[in-house]
Amino acid sequence: KLHSDLDKGVGTVKYTLSGDGAGTVFTIDETTGDIHAIRSLDREEKPFYTLRAQAVDVDTKKPLEPESEFIIKVQDINDNEPKFLDGPYVASVPEMSPVGAYVLQVKATDADDPTYGNSARVVYSILQGQPYFSIDPKTGVIRTALPNMDREVKEQYQVLIQAKDMGGQLGGLAGTTTVNITLTDVNDNPPRFPKSIFHLKVPETSHVGSAIGRIRAVDPDFGKNAEIEYNIVPGDGGNLFDITTDEYTQEGVIKLKKPLDFETKKAYTFKVEASNLHLDHRFHSVGPFKDTATVKINVLDMDEPPVFSKPLYTMEVYEDTPVGTIIGAVTAQDLDAGSSSVRYFMDWKNDVDSYFTIDATEGTIATNELLDRESTAQYNFSIIASKVSNPLLTSKVNVIINVLDVNEFPPEISVPYETSVCENAKPGQVIQTITAADKDLSPAGQRFSFKLSSEASNKPNFTVHDYRNNTAGIETRRNGYSRRQQELYFLPIVIEDSSYPVQSSTNTLTIRVCRCDSDGTIQSCNVEAIFLPVGLSTGALIAILLCIVILLVIVVLYVALRRQKKKDTLMTSKEDIRDNVIHYDDEGGGEEDTQAFDIGALRNPKVIEDNKIRRDIKPDTLRFTRHRPPAEDNTDIRDFINQRLQENDVDPSAPPYDSLATYAYEGNGSVAESLSSIDSLTTEADQDYDYLSDWGPRFKILADMFGEESYNPDKVT
């Protein structure tokens, strides 16, 4: 209610209202100033309203007082029930949990004013789900209320939770929600076989590795807690079978490890143990988490194919064996109770099988063609055996036939060798090691022998040293080889084997002579390398040879011209009586021919001046240390001088006195001085030529000529 002090109650004052909700939620009596709510108010929608009021004059419409502001607050009442905003709830708790195990916490919200009264104070309770679970009234935490709740007994629980305001007092509003609780599994149950004995029937023809039956142990647990492992307890018959677990059905699958034979054993008995893989230590006190059952297997008799006595047959036969020769036999039997005859035949797959035949009744294998080990050393084929009573029942076996070798090929040098020998090789030096190969299949212990052929064993060039280990060495027999004399040597080598009959062959080894250094390293093996310098091409060598030939021609021409010029000069001097010198191309009798001519002019003038020997006095007897052949031995010189004397005697133009002939006069000015022994008359006695005998056999003749011997003047002519 609004009232102004200026209002005298005569109707001259008018009240107005403005602000939140004016005219829509609230209205005012213009005369009395009473404020009324024209609709229901909801505190949860708008808890307060701010309004403005004013008093104005009815006649002048002017305000009598300033505008005033006031707040209208909505007072709360308990008109909202608690609500579970997150419901319904889903929770889980392990089975066999103890009392008070935490499950879930729920929460309800009340929209009423929590600061005014108990309208928003909520209390929780369980309406449905007792006595299994309990809830805290204030916090809303749900816990287990019974021990050892078993999932295998009941797995799902639905709990109805109530939240009530006003502290749970009478007249309070309430809200509910549902909590679905599931008991999760723990491994609290061992596997159990539903029966103690399992009977299985298995045909004896079952293949190894095939499944012959299934058994199952029951485990009420779930998931990995229900996984079962099966094992065969060692005992009678267990070694023939194996058992595995089917991961989808948790069944034990029994498989065959070895073949069954009804005629050998008709029944097998063994035990199978089932146990959990994942154990929970909290439940060990319950007992062992495994169970055992007995499995009995009865073997069923079946009509089986024949059985060979061996899984593989190996036979041997010599090559070139006559056609039709029996080399072996295979045997198969029908082991069934009513034994049947067996027939044999070859499994034709390729042309190789045509080399052999088999007797259908006896199973003997014989050759059908001539065999050659060098063509095919081994044959591999299959033999099929079938029952006469049931030809569809067959069995197969492999047969291997090895062809034995007959010594029909001689041994040969295994590889072509490039053998070389150094020019400076010494006797006994190994220049090559050779090996041999034989096309025949060499049996154990076969040996090859090496030797030179008969025509080569007499030549002193090379020899063969047999090492007796299927190898041999080529050794030299000479001290050095010359490429200029012979570049290639062909050495025939005979190689024999030790098989019967003995086979041999002659192999020629080519040996090339090469130039080597002092260490034996080969430098060149071409014969042209003896004459051609290294690094020059053929064109360059031809050019060098042409230049040498041209130089030789020039030298020969020059010498010929010099001789012609000298001859003309000497011939013109014949007209001079005072110096009538006749020129001869030959020397004459030499320095010992002193009786026919005066050879004083032939001596070196320089030496003559130094040795003033008078020509009119007979010289004393001298002892010459050099050996001079007797004059009578020099028949060529004597004949030459006599011929010249006779020519001058019969020449009418010759002077009546002896003419002087000059032989090989050197003249003066020689740097090397005289090389002739004519002027060494007085000095040669002091020379000793005994050292020539120490220079070897090549200087033997000179040593004999200049050896020490007494001089005999009577032999001088």
From TrEMBL:
TM spans (from-to): 530-561
The record ties this protein, via PROSITE patterns, to:
CADHERIN_1, CADHERIN_2
Domain Cadherin, by residue range, is 4-84, 85-193, 194-308, 309-413, 413-531
Q: Where in the cell is it found?
A: Cell membrane
Q: What is any Pfam family matched here?
A: CADH_Y-type_LIR
Alphabetical UniProt keywords: Calcium, Cell adhesion, Cell membrane, Cleavage on pair of basic residues, Glycoprotein, Membrane, Metal-binding, Phosphoprotein, Repeat, Signal, Transmembrane, Transmembrane helix
Function, as annotated, reads: Cadherins are calcium-dependent cell adhesion proteins. They preferentially interact with themselves in a homophilic manner in connecting cells; cadherins may thus contribute to the sorting of heterogeneous cell types.
Protein's name according to its UniProt entry: Cadherin-12
Query: Its encoding gene is what?
Result: Cdh12
